[in-house]
Amino acid sequence: MADPAVQIVNGGFEEVARGKFKGYRWHDEPGRITFQDTQIFKEGSASLRIENVGQFSPQHGHGRIMQEVAVAPRRCYRLSCWVKTEGLRPASAFKPQVLAGGRALAPFEPGLAETGDWRKITMVFNSLRHDRVGVYAGLWGGKEGKVWLDDLRIEEVGPINVLRRPGAPVVVRSEDGGTIYEEGKDFAALEDPRFRPWRPEHDAPALKLLPGGRIRDGERLRVSWYHAISIHESQVSICMSEPKVYDIWRTQAGLLRKHLAPKKFLLSMDEVRTGGSCAACKARKMTMAQILGDCITRQVELLRDANPGAEVYCWSDMLDPNHNARGNYYLVDGDFTGSWNHVPKDLIIVCWYFKMRERSLKFFSDQGFRTLAGAYYDGDTLDNPRGWLEALDRTPNARGIMYTTWRNKYDLLAAFGDLVSRR
Prior knowledge:
Radius of gyration: 25 Å
CATH topology of the largest domain: TIM Barrel
Helix content: 10-25%
Structural class: alpha+beta
Number of strands: 22
Strand order of the largest sheet: 3-6-11-8-9
Number of helices: 7
Mean pLDDT: 96
Order of helices and strands: EEEEEHEEEEEEEEEEHEEHHEEEHEHEH
Low-confidence stretches: none
Shape: flat
């Protein structure tokens, strides 16, 4: 049961006064970008239509609506809406967002088509320490086309995508908190058989009472759990404090040795966007910088135990104060500042933030690290690697440059090789 009750006012966009939607704190350019549409809608008799962003908001492409909603701290909520598009470019411009305390509580990209019929968009977020949040929906960086929005809803939900691992316990108490009930005796193991962090549409699993247990029929309970959440389209982070993670990696390191015997490894330790909030992390009494550094160090040790003499590389961003080695980063409960002090000095750092290449390369060089440039990134020219090569020429202990494609786009690989070979 929602405690307290929570709702979006005028989520069907039926009520308008002097061009403004009732209940919303603001919406962009009423009558020029945001409109009530009584001809096209999903529910009721109206919807919100957004268009003309390229004309009236050419710099930012904004076409948004926002409502402030009262919530309870540390609760799981589900936000949903129906969306229709027509020639929307880029289609990625549309997104729902929940903001509080200067950060997005659920960075989410729904993956809409440029033109598509009504589709239900659903996301979950945790209110963290906040008792009020800003619910946004609309366009950021839009260029052209139309989007319709209808039936915007919010609800507090039960244990959807509940995590079950030692560092994420489920706790069931009596309403007054005086009695803690025991899993396996008073109630059955609470698990979500439809666990999918990027698909939160399903109902939460029921709490099943066991025969002979102490929970009385009709008793009100307080249930605490940890839930998974995905970032953007489908990114889900591991817990760096859960011991089983390292058991899995140890096995993988042995298999890599057996089947491939590589001499170089690149750790996929970039954009670590959640962490520090579970019981496993809290029990360590460490900063997030220390937890991250320990995680990277242990991976290096595991790889070298199985592959003596291996060179180990790591993406730069989580170790770079010019990039993501900082506080207030996505949904991380803690601060990554200083992470570079907790990793082996023979780690080779793969710098990839082009805008900060000079600062980043110098920083890691001054710290005693060797560096590699992660260049290119699927552009149509070689301006990116040219800029990296110029910066590498000024960087002591620079090892080289890498052709970095995420789209299997190798059209410029030969020209890239020619460019590098001429240095």
